[in-house]
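Summary of Year 1 activities. Much of the first year was spent building the evaluation harness for sequence design. The harness presents a backbone, in tokenized form, and records the residue chosen at every position. We chose the following record to illustrate the format because it has been used consistently in internal testing since the harness was completed.
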């Protein structure tokens, strides 16, 4: 018996070739589906495309070997994604790629195909549907104030004058606790002037930093 046959005694060459081909094709389907109308990086798309075949090979190598399987599980538990923060959908895509790799690694090719195609189609459908979309007028307003200024009501009159909606999203200290950074989710009134709003806020916060930008998906920030 050859070394290759000893290592993967329960795996035939045909099974390995078919499983690897299926993993590569399904990985590409997942990568393109989750990039549909999204601005994903090339690195993330390559990860989604190659992750199924990597997981598949690992599962095949530890097939029937409990000790090796436990060691591999411990190694996977040490893996941390330390790149830029990802969204909830990024986590979903990674888990889908891993699930497809597990299915192809255990030679359940039909299950892997159904899983990848169904979830990819659902992702495209949900992307096209107007579910959870922010209103076009929503913006993020960040205001820096000195620690001596009580922020609870200090801007209320200005907000009532210029904003139709206003919600305090977060408060954090900065500069060794001498400053507060307030983040609001706002919507300007139809006839409101953004520059005049910022000018009045500058007079109230001591001309410290103020930033107004297009609203970000706070709920989707990585955890």
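For this record, the design step produced the sequence shown next.
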């Amino acid at each position: 018996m050859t070394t290759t046959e000893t290592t993967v005694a329960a795996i035939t060459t045909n099974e390995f070739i078919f499983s690897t081909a299926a993993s590569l094709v399904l990985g590409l389907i997942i990568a393109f589906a989750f990039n549909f109308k999204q601005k994903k990086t090339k690195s993330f798309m390559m990860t989604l495309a190659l992750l199924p075949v990597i997981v598949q090979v690992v599962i095949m190598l530890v097939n029937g070997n409990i000790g090796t399987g436990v060691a591999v599980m411990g190694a996977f538990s040490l893996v941390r994604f330390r790149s830029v923060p990802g969204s909830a959908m990024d986590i979903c895509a990674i888990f889908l790629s891993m699930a497809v790799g597990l299915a192809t690694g255990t030679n359940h090719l039909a299950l892997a195909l159904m899983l990848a195609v169904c979830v990819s189609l659902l992702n495209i459908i949900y992307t096209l549907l107007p579910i959870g979309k922010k209103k076009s007028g929503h913006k993020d307003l960040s205001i820096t104030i000195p620690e001596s200024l009580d922020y609870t009501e200090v801007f209320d009159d200005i907000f009532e004058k210029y904003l139709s909606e206003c919600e305090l999203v977060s408060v954090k200290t900065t500069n060794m606790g001498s400053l507060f950074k307030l983040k609001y989710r706002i919507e300007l009134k139809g006839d409101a002037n953004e520059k005049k709003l910022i000018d009045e806020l500058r007079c109230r916060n001591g001309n410290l930093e103020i930033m107004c930008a297009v609203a970000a998906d706070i709920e989707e920030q990585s955890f």
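Residues 1-9 have pLDDT under 50 and may be disordered. Quantitative recovery figures across the full test set are reported in Table 2.
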